[in-house]
Amino acid sequence: MGADAGEVVVDIHHPDDIVAARTAGHRLALDLGFSLTDVTMVATAISEIARNITSYAGRGAVRVTVADREGRKALVVRAEDDGPGIADVGRAMEDGYSTGRGLGMGLPGARRLMDRLVVDSAPGRGTVVEMWKWVPPGA
Description:
alpha+beta
C-alpha cells in the first residue's frame, strides 16, 4: 500500500475493530516514512478514538488517509459516529475528565499524540473527531 493508496475505512462495531483501525494507521504511517515513535503515537491515538466509539456510540467508522491540512501533507484520521454526542467538548478535552469507566487517555491523550485534533459534536447528533500528524519532509 503506497502513500497514494487513498483512504482506508474501518467500520467500528466491536472492540476487535479497534485493532483493525490501529493497524491501518500503523501501516500508512510506516509507508509515509514516519519514525517508529511517530508510528506508535498514530496507532495509539487511533486506538483511543476508536475505543471512544465502542464505549459511547456503539458503532461508527474510522477513516485513515493522506490529505492536505493547513497547506501541508498530513496523515489524517477521521472518526465518525452517530452516538449521543458530547455535551461539553471543552470538558471532554480536559485531562482526567471521563464519563466512562475506562482507563484510556481519551481525547486529551490522542490530542497530545497527534499534531492537531478537532472535535465536532453536540448532543443528539453524534461526534466527528479529526486528527492529523504532519508527514515528515522528504517522505
